[in-house]
Amino acid sequence: MLKELPLTEFSTRLASEQPAPGGGSASAAVAALGAGLLIMTCNLTLGREKYQDAEEDLMEVREELEPIRVMLLASVDRDSEAYDAVIAAFGMPRTNTEEKAERKAAIQSAMRAASEVPMDMARRAGRALDLASIVAGKGNPNALSDAGCGARFLEAGLRGALYNVRINLPSIKDEAYVAEMTSEVERLSQRADEAMAKVLAIIESGL
Amino acid sequence: MLKELPLTEFSTRLASEQPAPGGGSASAAVAALGAGLLIMTCNLTLGREKYQDAEEDLMEVREELEPIRVMLLASVDRDSEAYDAVIAAFGMPRTNTEEKAERKAAIQSAMRAASEVPMDMARRAGRALDLASIVAGKGNPNALSDAGCGARFLEAGLRGALYNVRINLPSIKDEAYVAEMTSEVERLSQRADEAMAKVLAIIESGL
Hints:
Chain A is an all-alpha fold. Chain A contains six helices and no strands.
């Protein structure tokens, strides 16, 4: 599994002329590192008398972030698998009308899946990013740079995931589906703008 | 070495209550993944007749990006080592005036090193980010989302590295040094703004 590769090897595979793993898998990895840093900031705060007032909120936030981190790590592989399925569909035989129709349907279905995997990453990364301002605002100020890194990585992973959704959409024929996905890209993107404005205000005033 | 850890294990260690590895090491990792994706985009372009006009430029860009990628991966460990040295300096004995003076000097020197490691990452990530618009503009358009991810990750790694510089500076007593570092943070930050504006214009118009 890609997520079990050493960091160096994952980076080398990304850099290779093989298109997978590519930006989608890497977006999942980067967002997972971001979620990890927000969790670390919670862990460096919880149980310390000095930050008692933040205890309840950060406990809740940590509980919500951990499954997001695990899901994002799983998406490292999920994204490459979805890409492989697209390639496999393109490789299907097309010697007669029936085969051609089957191949076309398989491509369409694989393309949808290849858009839904990064969309789902973007949703989860977006939720984690919403929580970043709580972590930065209530967390141990000695870890403020870590919370800032966490937010930046979640944002980068989210934007990267949305690029991967967008590059697939022109190949999908179902117009209603494409319109729905396009409007969700827009919504997630705007929500990320707002979440970033909030957390960066805290980071910039604290550093 | 941290850079040899599986991605999942690196993410778990980040999330733990141990402050190292933290945001600095993760910034190096994220930026290295970004450099890797720009290199992949070059590799998906070079040697293809269709993109012959880009051949010379992207060959040069790839040659410059590869050592940056390797340096960023090395910084994953370098940053945690620099942090460990700070902790070791704080742990030095201080039972008499001489020991106190030695400890103080060791802390100052370790703090400088802990600021210089992320500053150096930010410089290299910044250089790679300058090249992102060439990769996005001249690279294989099928890999445009990968180039976009590459730019986003380099930016996030760079901003994260600068947070790590900034959180250390208040502990450094040498005012001239702090002023110089602060102005370099500002310069790198502005250059990143400009590089991002350039590359995002290409990504947004192409996706």
